[in-house]
Structure formats: C-alpha cells, structure tokens
Amino acid sequence: MTEPDQHSSPIKSPKQLLVVVALAFLVPITIIALLSQLVTGVRHGTDESDKYVLDRIRPVGTVAMADPSAPKGNLTGDQVYGQVCKTCHDAGLAGAPKLGDKDAWTPRLAQGQSTLVQHAIAGYQGKAGVMPPKGGNGDLTDTEVERAVVHMANQVGANWKEPAPAAAAPAAAAATPTATAAATPAVAAKPDGKTVFDTGCVACHGAGIAGAPKFGDKAAWAPRIAEGANVLYTHALQGFQGKAGVMPPKGGNTALSDADVKAAVDYMMAAAK
After folding, report:
1. Closest among 187, 192, 189 to 262, alpha carbons compared
2. How far is CA 101 from CA 92, 115, 117, 152, 258, in A?
3. What digits encode the pLDDT tens for the residues 23-42?
4. In angstroms, rounded to a whole number, what is the distance separating the alpha carbons of residues 81 and 86?
5. Of 37, 107, 137, 206, which is most buried by a Cβ count within 10 Å?
C-alpha cells in the first residue's frame, strides 16, 4: 500500500495557486472596507441637542487682545545699564569711565548730577572720551537715562537718588475673547535701516563722534565699503576699535536684533555710494 505524501500541497495546479493568492489579498481588504463603513457610516450625536454639540466642538482656548502699547520710561538704572550703558562702560570703550572705577569717576562726579545727566542725554565730547546722546539708544526717556547715570555714580560712592517711576497707567480693558489660538500669525516686518539709524546710529554718525564716519560722507565711507559688507556687519554687531575710531557693539543698543543692525549698515553704505 502506498503511504500518502506528508509534504504534498492541496494546490495542484497554477490556476489554483492564482486563486489562493487573489483571495489572500481580496479577503483582508474586503474585511477592512466593511469595518470602515460600519464605523464611519453611523451618525454620532444624533440624540444631542444643539447646545451640547456646540459645547463639544467649542475651541479649547481663546486669546484676549490687550492694549499693545507697553509702558515706557519705567526701566530702572540697573536695567538701562545692562541693556545699553554696559557696552562701553564695562570695557571703557571710547574713553567711557568703567563702572566702579573711582579714579575715573571722581572728576566727573565733581561736576554734579545735573551736568552728568545733561551730558548723557544730549551727548558730550571731551578730552577724555565721547558720550553719544542717550548712549546711542534714542528710545530711552530722559528719566531712564538719569537713572542709569545715578546707578553708575552710586557704584563709586555717590549717594544720588534715582527719579521715581511714573505712576502706572490703568491697564486697558481686554477685548472680548473671540480670537482663537489658530489665528493666522503676524508676519514679521522687514527691518527698516533708516528707522534704526534715526533712533540710534545718528547719535555718532550724524556728527562724526568718536571717529564715526558721517552719514553720506563718501570719502570717509569708501575705505570701509571696500572691506565688504560682511566685515562691516561684524564690526557693527561685535564692536570694533581701530585707528580712526570706535564702534561699540550694536552702537551701544544691545536690544537691537542682528537684522536691525545689518539694515542700518546697508542704509548708511547705500547713502555713501
């Protein structure tokens, strides 16, 4: 008697093989399609009232639109120093007396608070150094500049008092919170070199203080432009001290972005070509 072959397959012909392969693909796909139809074909929430449906699809969060104008003039002397003054007064750039240097500050303190404050606000050029108006940051208020002067003077023993901050204005009422978090984000404005120049760079480049090439002076700018824009960007961003003058980092206003500084450089270069 012949024993059955244990390794034999029920598939006896190529046709049967094709049928099996086709079923192996079609059966799972059909099952998945039926399950999908079963899930998506049922209407959800048909028993819910309109109120509950609206509550369920309500946005997760809302944004309250407040007054965009921030209070100005309330920076302390320490804050102004950290944002603006330290660029020159930490390293003694352009003859600036270093913070805490009694020998350098003593003859200046002898001039009195009002004189030093006036020099800091309006700018001053003496034998020992140069002070650009408001340290190069025209956005500072006179009161903020005075606080910075008092802060530096007190580091070497003066007992001057900073002007008190102005009373805070009442906060603007928040608008109805209807804007959703999914609102289209605002596109950042392109840096305006002229605006940056007018609010900061003009302090030195307008009058040629500390060896700064005057705005529009082609003869003064020509050798600098010849160095290339990237070199001028680096000098303006990181600061530079050469034979012809001193450039504090970001013109003394470290709050400026790199893009703002580069835009101001481009604006001055274009005016001198």
Report:
1. 192
2. 10, 19, 18, 10, 31
3. 887 888 888 888 877 766 65
4. 5
5. 137
